[in-house]
């Protein structure tokens, strides 16, 4: 996978393979989220903190029960199900993996919100399954970092949003100008990008892109301190799992994709520790 291009099928294949790892974590945590956990004084356990990330994003987006939410990059549906249960609101999730979409539908059925949720195979750069002016909120939890063309994704969001609509995202972003990265830091970013199917960009560039795609009232909140415990835990796990995993990989127990994800988790924490990566919550309104 090159630094700029991003193959949709390859990204889907990465996460379908990582489901084997995630299923173990889901059983431990009791939910099916894939994202970073946000810790605060009231949410200091891993499962609680993972739910807290969703809560922070939905509160920032001013979600209520009267709205139609579009959850881009919905993964296994935990975010969509959470919003449907918390707000009794309609949610459509889109993703590029049929495997994860099927898990999302099962998840919704298990929690009694199949009537409120719909899960479509769709690329969030296109949103072919979503009508114009049909959703109130485009909601993405660590979704846009999977885009090599965020302007295109935001233009698609503009098309499907109502005139009073808004976007709400949390994601990893570079805190510095990409051109200022050292060769070592660039190598770490490329390791993360290749392992997890990402294209991490700068928060300043994203703010500019929002403006260029006709979003206004842009609000940016730095949540980095709240997710450090999560990235540190993942790095600690990777420190043990990666060398053991190499042995298991030789035995065919773990795949190269799973091993690469362990390394990527460690690199994310190193770059957060160095102040190069940050975790941001971003909201904006349609400006039309």
Plain-language structure description:
The chain is an alpha/beta fold. It has one domain: Vaccinia Virus protein VP39 (Rossmann fold). Helices cover 49% and strands 19% of the residues. It is built from nine helices and seven strands; from the N terminus they run H-H-E-H-E-H-E-E-H-E-H-H-E-H-H-E. The protein has helices spanning 8-29, 46-60, 78-87, 98-110, 150-160, 183-196, 203-212, 224-250, 256-273, and strands at residues 68-72, 90-95, 117-121, 135-141, 161-174, 215-222, 277-286. The protein has a seven-stranded mixed beta sheet with strand order 3-2-1-4-5-7-6, sandwiched between helices. Helix 6 (183-196) packs across helix 9 and helix 8 runs antiparallel to helix 9. The longest helix has 27 residues, at 224-250. Residues 245-253 have low confidence and may be disordered.
Strand-helix topology:
Layout: H1 8-29, H2 46-60, E1 68-72, H3 78-87, E2 90-95, H4 98-110, E3 117-121, E4 135-141, H5 150-160, E5 161-174, H6 183-196, H7 203-212, E6 215-222, H8 224-250, H9 256-273, E7 277-286
Parallel strand pairs: 1-2, 1-4, 2-3, 4-5
Antiparallel strand pairs: 5-7, 6-7
End-to-end CA span: 37 Å
> Helix coverage percent of residues?
40-55%
Which sequence of strands runs across the widest sheet? 3-2-1-4-5-7-6
CATH superfamily: Vaccinia Virus protein VP39
CATH architecture: 3-Layer(aba) Sandwich
What is the class in the CATH system?
Alpha Beta
- Major sheet summary line: 7 strands, mixed
Radius of gyration: 18 Å
Mass-distribution shape: globular
The CATH topology is: Rossmann fold
The arrangement of helices and strands along the chain is HHEHEHEEHEHHEHHE
């Amino acid at each position: 996978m090159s630094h700029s291009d991003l193959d949709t099928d390859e990204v889907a294949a990465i996460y379908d393979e990582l489901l084997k790892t995630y299923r173990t974590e889901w059983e431990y945590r009791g939910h099916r989220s894939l994202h970073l956990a946000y810790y605060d004084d009231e949410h200091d356990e891993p499962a609680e903190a993972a739910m807290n990330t969703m809560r922070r994003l939905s509160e920032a987006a001013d979600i209520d029960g009267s709205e139609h939410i579009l959850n881009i990059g919905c993964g296994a549906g935990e975010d969509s199900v959470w919003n449907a249960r918390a707000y009794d609101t309609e949610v459509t999730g889109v993703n590029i993996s049929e495997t994860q979409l099927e898990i999302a539908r099962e998840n919704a059925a298990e929690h009694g919100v199949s009537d409120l949720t719909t899960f479509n195979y769709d690329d969030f750069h296109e949103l072919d399954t979503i009508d114009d002016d049909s959703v109130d909120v485009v909601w993405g939890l660590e979704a846009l970092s999977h885009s090599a063309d965020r302007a295109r994704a935001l233009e698609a969001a503009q098309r499907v949003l109502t005139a009073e609509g808004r976007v709400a995202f949390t994601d990893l972003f570079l805190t510095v100008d990409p051109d200022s990265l050292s060769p070592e830091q660039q190598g770490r970013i490329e390791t993360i990008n290749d392992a997890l199917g990402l294209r991490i960009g700068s928060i300043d560039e994203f703010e500019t892109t929002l403006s260029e795609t006709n979003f206004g009232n842009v609000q940016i909140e730095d949540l980095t301190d709240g997710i450090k415990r999560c990235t540190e835990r993942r790095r600690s796990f990777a420190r043990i799992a990666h060398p053991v995993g190499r042995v298991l990989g030789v035995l065919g127990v773990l795949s190269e994709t799973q091993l690469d994800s362990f390394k990527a988790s460690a690199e994310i924490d190193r770059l957060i520790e160095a102040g190069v990566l940050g975790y941001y919550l971003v909201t904006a309104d349609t400006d039309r």
